[in-house]
Amino acid sequence: MSELIDKTKSICPLCYTVIDADIVEEGGKVLIKKSCAEHGNFEDIYWSDYQMYKKVKKYHYDGSKLDNPHREVKDGCPLDCGICSEHFTPTVLCNIDVTNRCNMKCPICFANAQTAGYVLEPSKEELIEMMKSVRNEKPVPCMAVQFSGGEPTIRDDLPEIVQEAKKLGFTLAQIATNGVRLSRDLEFCKELRQKGLNTVYLQFDGVNEKPYFPARGFNALPIKLQALENFRKSGLTSVVLVPTLVKGINDDQVNDIIQFGIKNMDVIRGINFQPVSFSGRIDKEELEKMRITIPDFAKIVEEQTNGEILAEDFYSAPCVNSFSNFIEAWRNKPQVKFTCHEHCGVATYVFLDDEGKMVPITHFVDVEGFFSLLDDMTEKIINGGKINKAMAIAKITKDFPYLVDRKRKPKNLDINRLLLSVLREGDVDALADFSYNTLLIGCMHFQDPYNFDVERVKRCAIHYAVPGGKVIPFCTYNSLHRGKIEKEYAIPLEEWQKKHGNKNIQSYKNLKSLSFFSKK
């Protein structure tokens, strides 16, 4: 028996036509079912646990639409990306592909110049215009930009691009990298840090060679380890590990990766697990065999950590809007809000006790009670003047200690100071102070044409700024728009090679020149 939960729009995974879809509960799982007039019926697992699906549903939050959208609605979502006037969430993180060239050739990849047959590499001037498009968003300009690709470090001018981002007012500049160049070029690491790079998102699929052969084509682990050493030496102490999670490849290493992060907390601030997205035709049985959803991930963490981290410790990303709303009221200034869809991702903060055991924040802080307290005080600030404002922070300062279980709290952790400083200051420095005392463990499940839900797209918070001035939600870009954009603005591979020489198209084969390349 199936029960209809909701109706939405999706796309056919073969012809990409926008079609109706049902979200249903069946056997304790949440499925998305749809039918294309030309290609027939499709279904996929949306969330593998209905109870967890319902738990995070309460954090559904429609954000403010842009005061200055890039374009009006014409054909409807997901065809009017621009950002259009019906999009519910401003750009929280702007992704910019600075090149589609790469120095690896992974079986799991969104983009690669050699495979595509063309090169898209915007000039620095074009990149500045793309950054301006999200910095000009109102009422809140985008504050965080991530340079990706391809492989962004293949560009020698990447430090200058980072510097331009900081000049434009981005408080957070980061790169998503495979670590190859950074592992062998310490001076490049130092230059990136000197020019203002804040965070490195490092592709990291496991703690031994096993997952790297099927995922990357060779044992890339030595590259990752050497890159981390170079980050230490260059002062890049805000690293996020990014494992692409594939069932049967590295889902047995989730806790191993977490333990690796714990042991390297001097430079690692978080781990962002990303279940693999699929493209091309996959039959139903293969899809079910390979698919990992967010509840699957949470249960894997609980099992592999022997309950040190529980599935229930993970909260949906929009839950932190209680913080944003309070800070907005306190400072009387619009704030960045994580109003993404509640089923896009989950996370928890993990601390260490005196014995080195992991203690999630939910084990010693009544987080839901804290959210409720913040919501109540936010309302009082909005409805009152300076006196109410002072009373609100006094009330939080007084009541918060009663929401903390002192027996379970790590002894040397001053959680009162850390959280209250974030509320009072509400700035990057306060958040950084908090993050350096903890490890963020999260899971972001990007959509593909099989599990595509337009309601998630409408609330996407991670957007691509692309040539031509458009700003496109992440999942829509990779499922629908990437090929069209790249072909419109790219040049043929042969033409690029004639102009720049083969040395600028670095392939997987070139890695054999690295001293630590595995010959297995």
| Distance N to C terminus | 50 Å
Which residues sit in consecutive blocks of at least 5 with pLDDT less than 50?
507-520
Radius of gyration: 23 Å
Quick one: overall form? globular
CATH superfamily label of the largest domain = Aldolase class I
DSSP summary, beta strand count: 19
Give the domain tally. Answer: 3
What is the makeup of the main sheet? 13 strands, mixed
Helix content: 25-40%
Structural class: alpha/beta
Which class of the largest domain in CATH terms?
Alpha Beta
Q: Write the CATH fold name of the largest domain.
A: TIM Barrel
For the record, the CATH architecture of the largest domain stands as Alpha-Beta Barrel
Task: Give the quaternary arrangement of the chains.
Answer: single chain
How much beta, percentage-wise?
15-25%
Return the average pLDDT rounded to an integer.
Answer: 90
Task: Please count the helical segments.
Answer: 19
Q: What does this protein look like?
A:
The chain has 520 residues and is an alpha/beta fold. It has three domains: 55 residues; 285 residues, Alpha-Beta Barrel (TIM Barrel); 138 residues, no CATH class. Strands 5, 7, 8, 9, 10, 11, 12, 13, 14, 15, 16, 17 and 18 form a 13-stranded mixed sheet that branches. The chain has a four-stranded antiparallel sheet with strand order 1-2-3-4. The chain is globular, with a radius of gyration of 23 Å. The relative contact order is 0.15. The C terminus is likely disordered.
